[in-house]
Amino acid sequence: METQREKTHTCGTICLKYLLFLFNILFWLAGGVVLAVGVWTLVEKSDYISLLNSSFYSVSAYILIAAGVIVIMTGIIGCCATLKEMKSLLIVYLILLLCIFLLEIIAGVLAYITYQHCFPFCYQLDEELRQNLMGTMQQKYKQPGQESITEAVDKLQQEFKCCGSHNSSDWTDSVWIQSTQNVVPDSCCKTPSELCGIRDHPSNIYKVEGGCIKKLEEFILSQLYILSAVGIGIAFLQLVGMMFTCCLYRSLEEEPY
How far is residue 107's CA from residue 125's CA, in Å, rounded to a whole number? Predict the structure, then answer.
């Protein structure tokens, strides 16, 4: 009877080990996704950082990268603790999961509080971003030594199908526009070609209400929604992982030598 009890208990431990190992694989992959999003944001969208004159975008990318690295390292520790059945390492792993989970909760609460108490400062921040983008376009576009800004503006207008910070009339006071025959840059055209920006007509250029700043805001919001969903998914995974870790630790404690 005793032999049968030990055999059943061993099978339970093995099942817990494989379940926790599977969880760690999923957790590790989730960390990889977060890390990849952070790197992609920093590499592919870094041009926009210089246009916004704000460190928020780059700081967000670095936070994602750091979070991804921490999650991946935690997943590796979890795999080692599970496979080697090291109870002390399981405790360290459980503490790490708990800390990350608490940080996610705190970050979510702070984000909610910040959003709720944002007004009227949100409008002021939004207007400041509009003015910064418009100033950058008007003063730095196609000016000596501002090649990266020029490239970023052209990429922004083509990728988001927009023209100007608020609308195409923002280009009227541009230093470059005043020295050429163009009304808007060629990147404002629906079908870009040399000197296509001479004709300021809705059939030729993008006349998007709200301009490029609105498109940028919509893009950033969509990214935040995606990250929120990923964060909720990771938080759920962590709860499952903590449960499996506690069960495995208890099983190893009770298992006879």
Answer: 21
Per-residue pLDDT tens over the stretch 223-236: 667 666 777 777 77
Residue 49 has pLDDT above 60, yes or no: yes
Query: What digits encode the pLDDT tens for the residues 204-250?
Result: 888 876 688 888 777 777 766 766 677 777 777 778 888 888 887 78
- With a CB cutoff of 8 Å and minimum separation 6, the contacts of 139 are 175
C-alpha span between 134 and 136 (Å, rounded): 5
End-to-end CA distance of the chain: 17
Residue corresponding to tokens 């459980």:
94
| 3-state SS, residue 189 | strand
Q: Where are the beta strands (DSSP E) in 75-226?
A: none
The string of pLDDT tens digits covering residues 78-117 is 888 887 778 888 888 888 888 888 877 776 665 555 555 5
Classify domain 121-212 at the CATH topology level. Cd81 Antigen, Extracellular Domain; Chain: A (1.10.1450)
Tell me if the bond preceding 120 is cis, omega within 30° of 0: yes
pLDDT, greater one: 178 or 129: 178
3-state secondary structure string, 164-204? Answer: CCCCHHHHHHCCCHHHCCCCCCHHHECCCCCCHHHCCCCCC
Beta carbons of 189 and 154 less than 8 angstroms apart: no
Domain coordinates of the chain in residue numbers?
A: 2-120+222-254, 121-212
At 203, give phi and psi (nearest 5°). Answer: -75, -15
